[in-house]
Amino acid sequence: MENEKTGRRRIVYLLLSILVACGIWLYADLTGGPNNNPRTVSQQFEAIPIEFLYESTLTDRGLMLVEEGTDLTIDLTLSGTRWDISNLDRSKIRVTVSLFDVTSPGEQRINWTIGYTDSRFNATTFQREKASFSMATVNISELYSRTIDVSCELMGSVADTYSAGQVQLSHTEVEVRGLQEDINPISYAKVTLDIGNSAVETVSKDLEIQYYDKNGQLLDKADIHSSVENVRATLPVFVTKELQLVVNLVESPGRRRKNTDYRIEPQTIAVTGDATRLKNVETLRLDNYDLAELGTEASENYTTTNYPIIMPEGCTNVSGVTRAALRIRFKDLSSATINTENISWQNLPEGKRVELLTDSLAVKVFGTEADVSALTGEDIAVTADLSDYSAASGTYSVPAEVVVNKGDVGISGVYQIQVTIREGGEEPPPEEDSPEDMTAGASVETGEITE
């Protein structure tokens, strides 16, 4: 039994010894131990692709990089710690060649630079032991250029009652550049615009340019450099519609649309234009007409006003009529002069008092016969605003606001009332039955607008 326990201990001790030895070996291999001199290992990486920088700068200089005769890959042998090498694969290696300083054609040799896409590595992590070449060879050629016409192939159809115009292209020609053997086979360039079936509005799309040879075969554009890659093609789709001519009638008290009888001649016109612009358009407004301009005599006779017919932008008047006439009258409009004693003031300045000299005011009103005949003086209120008379004393003709509180009735004319303004402590003079006093309460009306 004792021998069995001793045997187990020996096995445990042996395993521990092996683990400790492995740890010491690994520590020494990765860090170099106390001397800080880690062991390095080497790894070969074949066919690492080379990335060429500033190719667009070459194009701007009328030059291009030609793959034939150019080093496109490189073989590398790198050394580093076993740990770093084990974590490095070829996808993390980045070899670049800058073409920024290339200004002339021909075969040239340029230094290459190595970097890493893994942030754990930098220029000191690995040592370059070997490379298939010390400088990369690049073959630079002059760009050959031509100007190629661009056309558009149309696919699809427009809906019934619609029509299509001509396709409009943002570019009708492009400049192409590349090797002469790549550019010479180009016969023409085109884009294809598919408007679908039964198009009812203008179609506009950005389309990729394709290049074709004289036999109509599509060419590979990988080595063709163009001044533009896409062309915007627009196909205007037109529609012809009958638009209703309308006039916006501006209403006011006593003058309402419902109380008018009017017509527009002609009632409609035929308009053709962009289907997108006319998609939700059913009317064409001529102008505004203020019913306040229509006098009371218009209840018997029509008043005629002519308007030019102005087309919406991009549309054409196919009817040939350039002017329209509005013929309008009131169906029921009467006027009357009504006296009111409902006269007051507001905003009397502090420290003042006022004496009203106008006892009655004759107000001219208009509206339908029913509304006008139903009015009495009690339905009309006259108010004078005294807020502008804070420093005034004496007798004044003050502008008055006239409001009708019944029916839909308008007011004709501009009205004033006479008041005497005194300081607060001043007593009014005694009343006398003189001719002047008898006329002091007469109504005052100035500037009346004749209907």
Helical content class: 10-25%
Structural class: mainly beta
Number of DSSP helices? Answer: 6
Shape: elongated
What does this structure look like?
By secondary structure, the protein is mainly beta. 12% of the residues lie in helices and 47% in strands. It is built from 6 helices and 33 strands. Strands 26, 27, 29, 30, 32 and 33 form a 6-stranded mixed sheet that branches. The protein is elongated and about 130 Å long. Residues 433-451 have low confidence and may be disordered.
Describe how the helices and strands are arranged.
Blueprint: H1 2-31, E1 40-53, H2 55-60, E2 63-66, E3 73-81, H3 82-86, E4 93-98, E5 106-111, E6 113-116, E7 127-131, E8 135-142, E9 144-155, E10 162-164, E11 168-169, E12 173-178, H4 180-183, E13 188-194, E14 203-208, E15 210-212, E16 225-226, E17 230-235, E18 237-250, E19 260-265, E20 268-274, E21 283-290, E22 303-308, E23 315-317, E24 323-330, E25 334-340, E26 343-346, E27 352-356, E28 361-367, H5 369-373, E29 380-385, E30 394-404, E31 410-412, E32 414-423, H6 435-440, E33 444-446
List keywords for this structure.
mainly beta, 6-stranded mixed beta sheet, 6 helices
Kindly summarize this structure in a few lines:
The chain has 451 residues and is mainly beta.
